[in-house]
Amino acid sequence: MSELLRVRGLTTQFPSEEGRVSVVDRLDLDMGTGEVLALVGESGCGKSMTALSLLRLVPKPGRIAAGEIRLGGADLLSLPVPEMRKVRGRDIAMIFQEPMTSLNAVATVGSQVIEAIRLHEKVSKARARDRVRELFGRVGIPDPDSRINAYPHQLSGGLKQRVMIAMSLAMRPKLLVADEPTTALDVTIQAQILGLLRELQKEIGMGILLITHDLGVVNELADRVAVMYAGRIVETASREAILARPAHPYTQGLLASIPVLSRHGERLKEIPGVVPSPADWPRGCRFSTRCPRVYAPCAEHEPAETLWGSGHRAWCHAVADEVGDD
Amino acid sequence: MEAWMISNAVVAGLAVAGLGAAVVVRRNRLWREAAHELVRRRPWALMVVAAYVLVALADSVYWEGGDLDGADRVSQHEAMSLLDRAFHGTAEASYSAPLADFEFYGERSLERPGGHLLGTDILGRDVLYLTLKGARVALLIGGVTSAIAIPLALFFGIAAGYFGGRIDDGVFFLISTLSAIPGLLLLIALIMVLGQSTLSVCLALAVTSWVGFCRIARGETFKLRELEFVQAARSLGVSEARIIVRHILPNLIHLVVITYVLMFSGLVLSEAVLSWLGIGIEGSWGQMIVQASDELSREPVVWWNLTAAGAALFGLILAVNFVGDAVRDVLDPRTLREDG
């Protein structure tokens, strides 16, 4: 599998009263061509900021302070703005969480997808319209000929998300960033959209960076998983490995907090507390304030990378000790 | 070029613009439905507004010469509007003539309604004629002023709301400064500087009235900018300028239409206030009211010219407000009807 995306030391900062605060901190990420990587974590851990950083769309006053983002060899952070604009939509596309507001309410959905195509390719309106019709059929929008002239408020949430998918895939990007693509949808529609994404991913051969807090979605779609906590990756492994043998206490906590029907009547396990805000991330291991296995070095030093299995790495003192003891 | 030729050109321009707008509204389903709904809800108010517009247009189409019964040499060579010609009776304006010509300081000044449908004023001019003449002035004030104020407000509002930062600070400083100056004082000062003409009154009114809509446009743009569809457009590589034109502006259009209609009646009323202060526009209802007020102390009371001007003003503003109310209901996205 050849390399598609390579992120090194990505740091995204926002100014605050206590000075600059990194919401994404020295993040490393690798993706192969056609790989589906799930970025998992609680709300506020920096997943979405990572996604926006990849497109260089961090909202002001935030900015990318350091790092390197390489997409198929090109260094995105050093591209001039007009060049970066061409990369967006053509090489990287993004789907957003909220299909209700991610389409312009006063333009027909067809015209919006046509705009997406004609931005990157010199084709006539009629030709682009034909392409949109095809695309709509491909993403499972029934009756594409009339839906092309529909306004967003005339479509259901699921259909809108399909339009969004059609729009982002119009140029067959190499990388699709999907920020919680199914969170706002019904469970049945979720399954359909995930199935569609998997089909299209195989067909186009693109990589998907799937951002989610839903481990069910991870299980449906992901090849590999990176668990994120407080702006850092804490564990990364293949989907099977991480679901079967999670190393990091945080990952274990996430998996334990999934409700299971067979344990009916038991109290749901949870990780106590919330993700600390970027301004008061603890020194040492950032999970140390909530970790059940915390001990002396956790509060002092940042944990180093530990190899837990083949391709399975974790950043945790306890895990490092366990591996060292074996 | 003489003033009356410009007036004709404006009428032609308006006709073309009106036709263009009609075509756009017909083509776009959303607008067409809104127009139908508007007609359904307020047929009478729309007709009243249309009547005012027709009168104003009749008073805006000028030409020279023509066959005028008994007209003297001067008026033969003066450009007269359709409305002027309709009221141009015989030179011998008499008690029995239903529609009389000017008769300066004639014996028949301040005549009670009768031969002249609405009587005459102190100068012996027909009140009905003067009242109809006022429609053009009123529509000019409302139309021209909002045509200056709204683009101004949109430009600054969108720039401030979209780009934020320094630009926002600058625009907000401007807005705050302008709204800190008492409106009437600023109006008087501006008209003093610009000189007293229709255009300068409109300009002055525009300068004092764009601030409110600018705030609204800024706030709305600020909100739209953060919505995901703008983010989505950016993530597809759409440029900032294109986002503003294609995604921000169309989402503000309903506000523009609503503001235009509601601003209109306020502006017509402000002109009446300006007339009271002696800096209004020649021939407006405001001026008629001011002149009529002098006659109120007479015995028996001269009520007809005040009533005519007041009723004309009242009728227009009431109708425009009714239409404006319906426009807001029809165009507000929150009341957009789902179909199918």
What features would you describe in this structure?
The complex is a heterodimer of chains A (326) and B (340). The mean pLDDT of chain A is 87. Chain A is built from eleven helices and twelve strands. Chain A is globular. Chain A has 326 residues and is an alpha/beta fold. Chain B has 340 residues and is mainly α. The termini of chain B are far apart. Classes of the chains: A alpha/beta (326), B mainly alpha (340).
Distance between the termini of chain A: 32 Å
Apparent shape of chain B: globular
Radius of gyration of chain B: 23 Å
Across the major sheet of chain B, the strand order is: 1-2
Order of helices and strands of chain A: EEEHEEHEHHHHEHEHEEHHEEH
Q: List segments of chain B where confidence is low: pLDDT < 50 over at least 5 consecutive residues.
A: 90-98, 102-107
Q: Which regions of chain A have little confidence, pLDDT < 50, spanning 5+ residues?
A: none
Radius of gyration over C-alpha positions of chain A, nearest whole angstrom = 21 Å
Give the helices and strands of chain B as they follow along the chain: HHHEHEHHHHHHHHH
Instruction: Count all strands of chain B and give the number.
Output: 2
Largest sheet of chain A: 8 strands, mixed
The chain-level structural class of chain B is: mainly alpha
Provide the descriptors you would attach to this structure in a database record:
heterodimer, A: about 325 residues, alpha/beta, 8-stranded mixed sheet, 4-stranded antiparallel sheet, B: about 350 residues, mainly alpha, 13 helices, 2 strands, about 70% helix, about 0% strand, globular
